[in-house]
Amino acid sequence: MTPAARIAAAIEILDSFLGEAPAEKILTTWGRNNRFAGSKDRAAIRDHVYDALRNLRSYAALGGAQNGRAIMIGALRAQGQDPASMFTGEGHAPAPLNSQEAEFKAQELPTDIALDCPEWLIKPLQDSLNENFEPVLKALKQRAPVFLRVNLRKTTIQDAQDALQQEGIDTAPNALSPTALEVLTNPRRVQNSQAFKDGLVELQDAASQAVTDMVPLSATDKVLDLCAGGGGKTLAMAGRVRANFFAYDIAPQRLRDLPVRAARAGVDVTVLSDPEQEAPYDVVLTDVPCSGSGAWRRNPEGKWRLTQAQLEDLCDTQAKILDRAATLVVPGGYLAYATCSLLTCENQDQIEAFQKRNPGWEHLMSRSLTPLDGGDGFHLTVLKRV
């Protein structure tokens, strides 16, 4: 496919997204229905789409309309390219610019549009991020780095780097976590690399690794990951300490690959259907459902789909999970509360409300990370039952 044909495909996909279809599903369906597109074509189209989703409002404003064609016109303008060079109508390229499109002159963009922030989230994010509001929002407009977690149960940082380099994947250590490597070249090769297949490395954001590094663990602990999802943080904790690990998620299908991943990593994890049956635990980690605002670089769709009502429902769910988790911790044990959110209502406010509802918990530490620290945005609070 030509570069212009890839833009035409991105326009088609973006129009489906604006019609409320999930981005990942659209991309998958498009790939199945267009077998002529090679792997490089599909990767380039995906990059166009996700770049557009990260910058949806500003690109639409630069293109003069809220549709896939205008968004891709705006994308080219934002990148300093003349859209007419791609919108030629030749072959499979998009149709040439009409006079209105060619003559459109964007005015200076308002802050919320320039920062690609939903209007209703401006105030909550300003209050949460303070002086970092604009720098963080600008960072969320960019593609996220790719990070790996080195499995120290099986290898060292240097040996993992050497193994990856032999397959053309260059990496560099990252200061956020002693197990984190940033992928510098050929990130799409990682999952087919021998280092990955042998369990030497796992794909995991550096900030996510940093959060699990802060969870207090010892070799004699009984540890529950209460909202385990795919089990990434479970495996990260198990890579640090040979404790007794359990994983649970309200949607069991999310954990279906965890036994295979744990075996590949050389760690033992018990998947539970009822976490109360094995209670109490020395450590309970609750990586709760949240807005995902700290990870909008990776999932920009979430930024545009989130509503005020959904955020309120998420906060209610988070409070209920915290209260449930509190009943599972032994006296003297630890409750770790984590989100990938930048919003105070999902982080500090939740902990303050929890401690008011549940006396007898000591606040040991809290840390909030943003994309300015290098990885995704994350929050962690550790409480001790006294």
UniProtKB/TrEMBL annotation:
Binding residues for S-adenosyl-L-methionine: 249, 287
Any one GO MF annotation of this record: RNA binding
CDD domains linked to this entry: AdoMet_MTases
Location of the SAM-dependent MTase RsmB/NOP-type domain: 136-386
Keywords per UniProt: Methyltransferase, RNA-binding, S-adenosyl-L-methionine, Transferase
Alphabetical list of Pfam families matching this protein: Methyltr_RsmB-F, RsmF-B_ferredox
Record: active site: 340
SUPFAM superfamilies, per the entry: S-adenosyl-L-methionine-dependent methyltransferases
InterPro entries, sorted: MeTrfase_RsmB-F_NOP2_cat, MeTrfase_RsmB-F_NOP2_dom, RCMT, RsmB-like_ferredoxin, SAM-dependent_MTases_sf
GO BP terms, alphabetized: RNA methylation
Superkingdom per UniProt: Bacteria
Matches recorded under PANTHER family: NOP2 YEAST -RELATED NOL1/NOP2/FMU SUN DOMAIN-CONTAINING, RIBOSOMAL RNA SMALL SUBUNIT METHYLTRANSFERASE B-RELATED
Record-stated family: Belongs to the class I-like SAM-binding methyltransferase superfamily. RsmB/NOP family.
This protein's name: Fmu (Sun) domain-containing protein
